[in-house]
Each structure stands twice: as C-alpha cells, then as structure tokens.
C-alpha cells in the first residue's frame, strides 16, 4: 500500500480535467434553476389549500416555450443528480463513530439526495409524462374534454390513490426541502460566502427558516390534496380525459372557468 | 474506597493489533492496574513490560508511536474509544468518566497505511503539504531585511492555524478522506490558507490555488465538519476551508477572464 494519495492517471479523465468547474456547476445547478424552481413549485402547490390552484396551473401551462423551460429543468436535475451520485460514493459516512449533528446533516444530505431523485422521477413520470407504474396510473389533467377544471381533482386523486403514494409524497417532499435548504447552507461555505463560524450560524438560521416555511407550504398542499373531495362530475371528466389521452389526443390546457 | 480495592482495580484495554501491514487484524485484551492520572502511553508502557493478555497468553509488546508526550508532535495519535486523539493527552480518568466503564479500546488510525499494531505511516499528510507548497519561499541567497509587517488581528488568526501538528485526527474523522482517494484534507487546506496569509508566502498563492482547484482539492470537502470537532489544537479548520473556498472562487473567476490556459 502506498503512503501517498491515489495518483492521477497520466491522461486525466473528463471529470478530473474539469474537476473544479463541474463541482461548482453542480453546486450552482442545485440553486439555479433547481432550488429556485422547487420553491416556486411548493408555493404554487400551497394554493391547493388556500388559493386559486386551477388559475395558477393554467397560467404556468400558458407560458410561452414551456417545453424549453421543462427540458432545462429536467437537464439541470439530471446533471445535478448524476454528479451528485458520483460525489456521494466518493465519501464514506461515519456517523456510527462521529455522531455529531453536522455529521448527521452531511449524511442526511446524501440520503435525501437519493430519495429526492427517486421521488422526482416517479412524480414527473406519473403526473407529467403520464406513465403507468405498478398499477399506479393517476394522470394529471388541467381540464376535462368538456372544460371541467381538473387540476385539484387529479392532484387529489393521485395522492388519495393509495397509502403508499401518500408516504412517497411525504418522504419525497421532506427530502427535497431538506436537501435544498441544507444545500443552500453548505453552498455558502463552498463558494466562500460564509467564512466565520458566526457567519455560518447566521446563514444557518436563514436556511432553517426557509426550510420551515417550505415544510409548512408542503404540509398544507398535502393536507389540501388529502382533504379534497373529488365530485362525481370531476370523476366523469377525469375518465373522459383519460379516454381522450388514450386516443392520443392532446390534453386540454384551459378550463371553461378561466 | 479502601486502599485494597484501589490496588486491585484494573482498566481493561481492548487493543486492535496487526503484525504486518497486510496481515489480518486481531484483538487482544490486557488488564492494567489502575493508578491516578494514568495516560494511555503509561498504560501501553505497562503492557510492553507485561505483555500477558487477560486470558493468560504470553503475547508480544504492543507497538505504538510517540515522541513529545505533550500533545505537540502528533506522533501518538490513535483511535481511542472510537475517536481519534493523542494517547499522551488521553487520560484514563477522563475516558472512564466519559464512558462510565473501566474499559478502553485502542485502534490504529484507519485512514493511513498500517505499519504494525497502533503504528501507522502518516507520510501522506506531509506529501499533501508539499503538493500545496505549504512553506514560505526564501532561497537564502541574499539578505531580505526585516519580515513583513503583521497586524495583531492577522497574527491572532495565523497563530491559531500555526498550531497544526499534522497529527491526522481531522482526516481520520473526515467522511470524505479515505485511505485510497486523493482528497488533500482539512490539515493541508488550513496550511494553504496559513501560507497564503503570509506576505511572502502569498507569492505561491496562485500555485496553491491551482492545485486546490484540481481533483482531490477544496471542492472535495463535503462540509461534514467533523475535522474541527476532533482537532486537538482547536484550529478553526472549517473557517479555513471556507476561506480557501472563497479564494478558489475569486481565483477561478480571475482565471476565466484573464487566464492564459
């Protein structure tokens, strides 16, 4: 065994050659666009409980070049996740020996990253791409073919579908919120914004408050989805929307109410 | 407590041993008579003189490394009760109070190549210091005059960083530093900051930053912050990591706009 660090190969790999840039882009992509998007997304969801959720979603669906925004987000999440997975397995957690709070925070960041990735994939695949998984096919529609608003109903239907889906959403959203807020805290150290212990503590309070607010928004959205009563008319409209989807026709992006 | 019970009280040492760098490790137990103010080194001395295990087997003396015996050289660092620290300054009375048991486990550090028993080869840390040019470059060919002026504030900060004894505790506790990767680790990062702060040492700052921006450099820190908690010299290692992070950010932006390669 050598007494020095592992030597680098004569021809550095792509990851080694652009090490610093990739690491910093990994950090940056977690903040912009992914983190910022997550905050807006969780705030939009909260309107399921208190606001005009239908209007919000129709507004988002009416954005120009929405597909480019979506592809940018999927690409950023994919980039952040792929490098994150590589980085996760370069370390070796040791909370069994060094059970400090910060060490738990470090370990949780890696666990929640993986949980968030699984959750985000299932979430986008089922609701956005309308894939069927394990008999769980609860597609998301803005409106039925007759213009019945379906944003709240199809969201509620997805979460009320089974206890497993509800648990997936609670664990998944909690992981996303933790990963985002802790990542924002550590990014400030990595980029060199917070240097002193006192500064790191102050920024820690900011990130913890943000996490708490996002957790409240998320809890509100989940409660909103779970308590929403899907009416018979909405059920019929959902069925009609599914039939239309199965025929390969484009989904309706605007309800008759807006 | 009577004098008789004090005489018969023993501290049980569970020691992870290994004869050769690549042989299989094994555990041995020794009962060391208790005395007040024992440190781990004095217990290891007693074991060296009486290498008989608790099961009555005549074994070989346990090998360990030590030098200064006052927590300034770092040579006697080992994993005591699961935590990296110096065996000279680890006191039996304190350890017993921590765990509430008369049992102490000793293991070699796991992040460095093992030599024998509790002795490891800490050479990698010194090679990391060479990699980061952790020195003040003076070639001694001409008189340089008086040293650079230093403010009391900078002196305070730099004095804290200068206390590093390259013991390896920060690396042993670090989840990002493994025996077979190329992360420079907290001690070398902190020394890079130390010499970047020195007016003459700063001449090499760009070279240090280029190395620190490469594989195994500053970005490999995962911010678990175990280093600062286990550091026996209370060096603000996490502040050093953040300070080097800022220097790397500035250096990379400058290189992006003005760099030649």
Please describe what this structure looks like.
The complex is a heterodimer of chains A (258) and B (261). Chain A has 258 residues and is mainly α. Helix content of chain A is 70%, strand content 0%. Chain A starts with 13 loop residues before the first helix and ends in a 12-residue tail after the last helix. In chain A, 33% of the residues are buried. With 261 residues, chain B is an alpha+beta fold. Chain B contains 10 helices and 7 strands. Chain B has helices at residues 3-8, 40-49, 92-99, 123-131, 152-162, 169-172, 186-197, 205-212, 226-230, 237-258, and strands spanning 10-17, 26-33, 77-80, 83-86, 103-107, 114-116, 119-120. In chain B, strands 2-1-5-3-4 form a 5-stranded mixed beta sheet. Chains A and B meet through helix 2, helix 5 and helix 7 of A and helix 4, helix 9 and helix 10 of B.
Look at the structure and give the mean pLDDT of chain A: 92
Instruction: Outline the biggest β-sheet of chain A.
Output: none
Calculate the terminal CA-CA distance of chain B, rounded to whole Å. Answer: 74 Å
By DSSP, the count of extended strands of chain B is 7
User: What is the CATH H-level superfamily of the largest domain in chain B?
Assistant: Alpha-helical ferredoxin
Oligomer: heterodimer
Strand content of chain A: under 5%
Given as residue ranges, the uncertain stretches of chain B (5+ residues, pLDDT < 50) are none
Total DSSP helices of chain A? 9
Count of beta strands of chain A:
0
Assigned CATH architecture of chain A:
Up-down Bundle
- The CATH superfamily of chain A is identified as Fumarate reductase/succinate dehydrogenase, transmembrane subunit
What characteristic shape of chain A results from the CA principal axes?
elongated
Number of domains of chain A: 1
> Major sheet of chain B: order of its strands?
2-1-5-3-4
Largest sheet of chain B: 5 strands, mixed
Query: What proportion of the residues of chain B form beta strands (DSSP E)?
Result: 5-15%
Instruction: Give helix and strand order of chain A, one letter per element, not per position.
Output: HHHHHHHHH
């Amino acid at each position: 065994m050598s007494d020095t660090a592992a030597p680098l190969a004569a021809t550095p790999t792509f990851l080694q050659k652009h090490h610093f840039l990739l690491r910093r882009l990994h950090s940056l992509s977690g903040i912009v666009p992914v983190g910022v998007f997550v905050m807006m997304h969780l705030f939009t969801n909260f309107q399921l409980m208190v606001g005009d959720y239908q209007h919000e979603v129709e507004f988002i669906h009416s954005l120009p070049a929405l597909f480019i925004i979506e592809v940018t987000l999927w690409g950023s999440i994919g980039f952040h996740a792929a490098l994150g997975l590589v980085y996760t397995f370069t370390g070796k957690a040791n909370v069994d020996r060094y059970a400090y709070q910060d060490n738990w925070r470090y370990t949780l960041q890696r666990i929640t990253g993986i949980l968030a990735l699984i959750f985000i994939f299932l979430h986008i695949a089922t609701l956005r791409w309308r894939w069927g998984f394990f008999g769980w096919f609860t597609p998301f529609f803005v409106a039925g073919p007759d213009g019945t608003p379906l944003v709240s109903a199809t969201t509620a239907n997805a979460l009320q579908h089974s206890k497993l889906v509800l648990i997936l959403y609670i664990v998944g959203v909690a992981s996303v919120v933790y990963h985002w807020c802790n990542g924002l805290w550590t990014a400030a150290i990595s980029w060199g914004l917070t240097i002193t212990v006192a500064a790191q503590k102050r920024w820690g309070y900011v990130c913890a408050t943000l996490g708490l607010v996002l957790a409240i928004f998320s809890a509100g959205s989940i409660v909103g989805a779970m308590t929403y009563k899907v009416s018979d008319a909405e059920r019929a409209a959902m069925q009609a929307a599914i039939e239309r989807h199965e025929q390969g026709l484009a989904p309706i992006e605007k309800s008759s109410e807006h | 407590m009577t004098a008789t019970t004090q005489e018969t009280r023993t501290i049980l040492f569970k020691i992870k041993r290994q004869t050769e760098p690549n042989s299989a490790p094994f555990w041995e137990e020794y009962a060391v008579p208790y005395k007040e103010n024992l440190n781990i080194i004095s217990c290891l001395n007693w074991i060296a003189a009486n290498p008989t295990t608790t099961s009555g087997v005549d074994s070989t003396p346990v090998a360990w490394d030590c030098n200064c015996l006052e927590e300034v050289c770092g040579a006697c660092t080992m994993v005591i009760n699961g935590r990296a620290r110096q065996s000279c300054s680890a006191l039996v009375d304190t350890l017993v109070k921590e765990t509430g048991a008369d049992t102490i486990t000793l293991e070699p550090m796991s992040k460095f190549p093992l030599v024998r028993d509790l002795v490891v080869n800490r050479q990698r840390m010194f090679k990391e210091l060479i990699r980061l040019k952790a020195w003040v470059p003076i070639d001694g060919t001409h008189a340089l005059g008086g040293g650079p002026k230093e403010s009391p504030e900078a002196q305070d900060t730099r004095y804290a960083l200068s206390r590093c004894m390259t013991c390896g505790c920060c690396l042993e506790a670090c989840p990002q530093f493994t025996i077979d990767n190329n992360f420079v680790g907290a001690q070398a990062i902190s020394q890079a900051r130390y010499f970047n702060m020195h007016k003459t040492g700063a001449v090499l700052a760009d070279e240090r930053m280029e190395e620190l921006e490469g594989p195994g450099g500053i970005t490999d820190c995962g911010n678990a912050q175990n280093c600062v908690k286990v550091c026996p010299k209370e060096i603000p290692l996490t502040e050093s990591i953040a300070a080097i992070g800022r220097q790397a950010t500035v250096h990379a932006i400058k290189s992006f706009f003005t760099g030649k390669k």
